[in-house]
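Can you give me the bound-state structure? Components:
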Amino acid sequence: MDFLQTLKIALRALRTNKMRSFLTMLGIIIGIAAVIAMMAVGTGASYVISQQIASIGSNIILVIPGSTTSGGLRTGSGGAQTLSSDDVKAIMAECPSVAYAAGTVRTSGQVVYGNMNWSSIIMGGTPELFEIREWPVVSGRPINQDDENGAIKVCLLGQTVAENLFGSADPVGNIIRIKKIPFTVIGVLERKGQSPQGTDQDDAVFVPLRTAQRNLVRSQRTGIVGAVIVKAKNEELINKAESEIQSLLNQRHRITGGKEPDYSTRNLSEILAVAEKSAKAMSLLLGAVASISLIVGGIGIMNIMLVSVTERTREIGIRMAIGAKKNDILLQFMTEAVLLTMLGGLIGIALGAGGATVVSRLLEWPTMISFQSIAIAFIFSGAVGIFFGFYPAKKAAGLNPIDALRYE
Amino acid sequence: MGDQQFEALKGVSFDVTAGEFVAIMGASGSGKSTCMNILGCLDLPSSGSYLLDGLDVGGMTTNQLADIRNKKLGFVFQGFNLLARTPAIENVELPLVYAGLNAKERRQQAIVAMEQVGLAGKENNHPSQLSGGQQQRVAIARALVNNPSVILADEPTGNLDSSTTEEIMGLFTALNRQGITIIMVTHEHDVAAYAGRQITFKDGRIISDSKINQTD
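Here's the bound-state model for the whole set.
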């Protein structure tokens, strides 16, 4: 008996009871749709997180000063001015697991060009900063060591600042005023997008560290940096680099015994890696919960197939009398069950994908539907049909033709 | 069935030669149905043997029996036993589906069989759109389509009125004249009268086996 004929018979049987077939499929439809939607949401979330990891740069450790007390008031962490450019140089020179270290200072202020002005973050950083952040310029040139050494008044603009001051014109070569001091724009940075914390990373102006230290920030001593950004040589060396930095700074800052360090380190990539892992675990968990409904749907299929076998006992008897072998009958009912679940699977995939798209539009939550998850869902729906269709089909194939023919 | 064995047929032995038209008669419980099931390869005798076309059916597997039913036997039932919601032509094609013929060959042979039973033009009618007599003709076409050695008819006119019975019996007689062997179970004497030979069962034994001269 050829497969096409088997398929035709199965289709006819499903068409005969349209409503029943649909309701039976509904369990699978809902299950598959839920799995697809959940996977899409989960994959979307972990994609966003990995994008953010890429946007801050990989293998990054942040060193920030500790808190300080003045007049009985403690500042938060980062308030003290305990890290200096010399610390940065020492980290670069003495920590073997560190690829780059860059001192930064940060302030905010008004940026003015012609009759346009914009309040933005002003970052001072050594040229290494852009290596660490993996952040190239799209026009002009980056800040180089000469700019840094000479504390020259040049700046790089983030995309947001460039757009707000210059519109679509090229800012390179123009003079802008930062906190009333004129700076030459030497380049515009590539678009970075949102940071993991949700701030616009492109809303910033970058100047050489020494320029910023001299002209833009006030500090008690010269050479103070607000934070040090460090890049480890590779992923495996992040933790090693962190402990190297800690022991070096403890030594330089004379922190011994129980004394609390006047700085702290943060391993950004690690925090995000954990977030990514939990997002993945979440989507797996949601997928697992959703797949329970597939099992429930499968039981529904089994139930209806059993009813169908009973209802069609006579038909089975006729087919057997006429020459159908056990396998023909088995295959016929299996085909019916698999057809039910696979059709349900296809509808479920469409619904799940549609649902995920709607969710991402309405809630602005990123969703991603991978070809892989569709393939898995489709194969899984077929497998549900085979698994739950087998028992009823076996029952049908095991009928005695004489009894089946006599069945009323 | 139960703990005790029940002998439905005892010492039954008869030969049917090719081209015969045999009526099997008897009251219910006489063993004629069991005999029919064995003749139809739906059941195997617990002892004794059944040779069909010289082939001992006794030791065959269920798949082999299915093949025999498919290729050597044609069934006609009291209740027609057509597949509902399936066009007449596809009902007729059904044995050919299990014989593994392709769609084109199936259609050709089925059309010939439909013509043989006088139902040309009704190919696409569903059983519910046909009269009882027509439905039984479809069933006969289905039994014929594979060119079987024997057509087994179990009370083929049991659900039909007298004029339709005549019509169907006329068809059987005509098919028999073309050389097709027919074995028919019935409990109506006037139906049995169409057959050239009558075997009567009682309590699992044959009590009479008579050849009668055709009188029409």
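A couple of observations. Chain A is about 55% helix and 20% strand. The first strand of chain A starts at residue 60 and ends at 65.
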